[in-house]
Structure formats: C-alpha cells, structure tokens
C-alpha cells in the first residue's frame, strides 16, 4: 500500500507562498593546507566550510523524485576536492575557487560561501571569510 500526502491546491494564500529555496551545507570540516605564516605552511589545518545555494526553482521536485533534486553529495565532494587540490595562502582564494565551481552549476540563483578556521583563537569560535553573489544578508527575491 502506498501512502500519498494530501494535495492542498489553492488553499495557501499568495502572500505566504514559497518565494525562496536553498540548499545548505553547513560547517563541513575539511583538512586544508592554508595560511601564510611559517608555522602554517605545509601543515594542514581544520577548516569549516559552509555553502548556501539559493535555487532558481523554488518548487519541490515533481513526484518527490530524487533525480530532480540537488544532490548534496556533489556539493560536498566539490568542496573536498577543491580544498585538497593545492595549498592556499589565503582563505579568500579557496572561497573564490569554491564559489566559481558551484556558481557554474545549473539552477543557482544566488550563492554564499563561508570558510572559518576554528582553531586559531581560543576565545573565538573561528576566524574566516564570507563571499556572496549579493549585497546584504539575503538575495532579493
């Protein structure tokens, strides 16, 4: 027996319809050879990478079909591959490499990349950079 969710067509008021959809990969931990200080060069360190992808299509994939949805594994593998590809003097350089890769994918309306070194200052959760395809906190709908 297959259960299907009831379809509520026309009952959601227009003023609260879905206007934005995003995929979030939050604080993925990777080991990266990053930094320009002598004690950092050649010594991979923990870096947390967050990716937020605002989607062109805000609708749920038709028929709950995984083939029509974003594959989170692809995003995770992109981050891991680019982080391991070379050494980086700056988090900014890595963030831009990640940005360029993910922004080139079909269906991306807006994008934000955040990197953070969590082990630099004992009194801080981390120190890092953030870049986005929009100004302000959120992209305009």
Helices and strands in order:
Blueprint: E1 22-32, E2 45-55, H1 72-84, H2 91-103, E3 108-117, E4 127-132
Antiparallel strand pairs: 1-2, 2-3, 3-4
Write a short abstract of this structure.
The chain is of the alpha+beta class and 141 residues long.
Explain what the structure shows.
It is a single chain. By secondary structure, this protein is of the alpha+beta class. It has a single domain, classed as GTP Cyclohydrolase I, domain 2, CATH 3.30.1130. The chain contains 2 helices and 4 strands. The chain has helices at residues 72-84, 91-103; strands at 22-32, 45-55, 108-117, 127-132. It has a 4-stranded antiparallel beta sheet with strand order 1-2-3-4, covered by helices on one side.
Low-confidence stretches: none
Number of strands: 4
Q: What is the straight-line distance between the termini?
A: 40 Å
Number of domain units: 1
Largest sheet: 4 strands, antiparallel
CATH level-1 class: Alpha Beta
- CATH superfamily, by name, is GTP cyclohydrolase I, C-terminal domain/NADPH-dependent 7-cyano-7-deazaguanine reductase, N-terminal domain
Oligomer: single chain
Spatial order of strands in the largest sheet: 1-2-3-4
According to CATH, the fold-level topology is GTP Cyclohydrolase I, domain 2
Which secondary-structure class do the elements indicate?
alpha+beta
CATH architecture: 2-Layer Sandwich
Radius of gyration: 19 Å
Order of helices and strands: EEHHEE
Proportion of residues in helical segments: 10-25%
